[in-house]
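User: My advisor asked me to double-check a structure prediction for Serine hydroxymethyltransferase before group meeting. I don't want to rely on an old file, so could you generate it fresh from this sequence?
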Amino acid sequence: MADTYWGPDFDALRDTDPEIADVVLDELARLRGGLQLIASENLTSPAVLAVLGSALTNKYAEGYPGRRYYGGCGEVDRAEALGIERAKALFGAEHANLQPHSGAGANLAAYAALLMPGDTVLAMELPHGGHLTHGSKVNFSGKWFDTVGYPVRKDDELIDYDEVRDLALQHRPKMIICGATAYPRLIDFARFRAIADEVSAYLMVDAAHFIGLVAGGAIPSPVPHADVVCATTHKVLRGPRGGMILCREGLAQRIDKAVFPFTQGGPLMHAVAAKAVALKEAAQPAYADYARQVIANARALAAGLEGEGMRPVSGGTDTHLALIDLRALRITGREAEERCDAAGITLNKNAIPYDPEKPMTASGIRVGTPSVTTQGMKEPEMRRIAALIAAAVRGEPVAQQVRELTAAFPAYPSP
Ligand SMILES: Cc1ncc(COP(=O)(O)O)c(C=O)c1O
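Assistant: Sure, here is a fresh prediction for Serine hydroxymethyltransferase from the sequence you gave:
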């Protein structure tokens, strides 16, 4: 290969910039030495990493395959066209755009394609699991659009579809968004479609978190129901950091123009090509097994934590994440996050629905299983992790046990 391939050379990095080389090594050691339970993270494959570190990063390719504003795009055209075809086939979508630099960028493009500033949008409230791009006042969505939030029900912490419908009839939004950052349950996309149709609104599904579960056939797909599906490629899907938009053919031009030239310039062709690789990996039978195991693990982890006196919001999970109410233990999310961090267990504090605490304190934590499942862990390990989290939260020393567990299921194992 040496005469045809030129790629990542760690010795060159160490010679040029030893400080950044140390960061790279320390981060790898952190990944290998701890449990990664951040629900939005995963461990990409060596194939994806190889493309990300390739010479494709150099190429300017404003435009789309076959229609570029720069010369020399024949090679990257092949990568993007392959990626688009793979996304369409995997998700049964009429059109795919792989250029958004991130999930937030994909959402911005969807707003730009479908709405004008000042239009009304109905989306899940941020404190109940929605995302900043769903109408937060500190985000473009809340500043430039008239956003109305729907909560989850107080008693069972689930979406109340009748309330969503009432809000839609009252506010007549031009777009309804479903899909969240911290909602552990399945979403009834057909129900949302019916509500959107009743008020002639677009339905945008923000599948950033769960698109990988859809890819693996482990949960129902939003694609048949939505006008536009926005997603990230780096969460359960296990690709490079980035965004993706799927839509019907009728909206294809508007979506493509909203990504480039409206909200972005040149695409990151190394990332676009890495998305193509991840989509190929996600179409394999082994990935379907992985997606199913991610959910089985999240259920086992939530049940284990419940056994330790930590209440799973909504009683459990149907997805890759669980939201855990810690109030019975008289500890805040922030304290739990810090104590787990000290033990090598990385998770995040998270507001729970109707949280009495401020967001930076929070009454809960969010745990997710994409990374530990990539490492090969299954239900018995989830039960062990639940016990380790509980012990860490109580302030007991568990770092040694965490190291033993990660040694048995290494992240990025050495050959
Ligand atoms: C529902 C949802 N949408 C959008 C995003 C934004 O993705 P990114 O961080 O890639 O901009 C996230 C990120 O966590 C998310 O959870």
